[in-house]
Amino acid sequence: MSPRRSYDQYCSTARALDAVGDRWTLLIVRELLAGPRRYTDLHTDLPGVSTDVLASRLKDMERDGLATRRRLPPPGAASVYELTGRGRRLLPVLQALGEWGAPELGERRATDAVRAHWFALPLLRGLDAVGDGAGGDVLVEVRLEEGEFHLYVGAEDVPVYGAGPAPEEPDARLSMDTGTCAAVGRGDLGVLDAVRSGRIEVTGEGTLAKALREA
């Protein structure tokens, strides 16, 4: 395990960066906000990270109380990593960083990797206000050209999103192109405005789906 590096400053920001300031750490947190993940799944969804660096960061996160590792019971019998309560409290940090960095997205570069579920946290910001009256843990399925993911609007615990289709019948299904999803995540386009203009297609009979269609 790598030795702990520190800024050696008596400052809460410096102490936070001692734990999460290394490259890849916050992106690992982003992936684990989807719930328990196997090492191989993390490596697949973090293109560009080496196996050595990923293993080192996960060990550091375990040491610092951000993540834990456990063995799934048979027939899974695989080890998974998941966030601790301390790690889960980084969600608003990632939300704020995503909002701050959104203007930097612009056009996708030829070298940019993309995964559909990377749009989950930015889109969640746009849906949170709309879902306030629908109760907690509202399940939403989102369909993009790159694939599908699902969100738990109003969730107070992980997972707050997941890759792939919803695990059960969702409250609402949203279909849109990636440009629309990115615009909503940047705050350039409101969810309701996108629905009204036809840029987001809404299906489903849940409370949130009806609220979106009737707004």
Helices, strands, pairings?
Blueprint: H1 12-20, H2 25-32, E1 37-38, H3 39-44, H4 51-63, E2 67-71, E3 79-83, H5 85-88, H6 91-101, H7 120-130, E4 138-144, E5 147-153, E6 161-163, E7 172-175, H8 178-186, H9 191-196, E8 201-203, H10 207-214
Parallel strand pairs: 4-7
Antiparallel strand pairs: 1-3, 2-3, 4-5, 5-6, 7-8
Helix pairs in contact: 7-8
Describe what you observe in this structure:
By secondary structure, this protein is α+β, with helices and mostly antiparallel strands. Strand 4 and strand 5 form a beta hairpin. Helix 7 (120-130) crosses helix 8 (178-186). The protein has a 5-stranded mixed β-sheet. 32% of the residues are buried. Helix content is 40%, strand content 17%. It is globular, with a radius of gyration of 18 Å. The protein has helices at 12-20, 25-32, 39-44, 51-63, 85-88, 91-101, 120-130, 178-186, 191-196, 207-214, and strands at residues 37-38, 67-71, 79-83, 138-144, 147-153, 161-163, 172-175, 201-203. It starts with 11 loop residues before the first helix and ends with a helix.
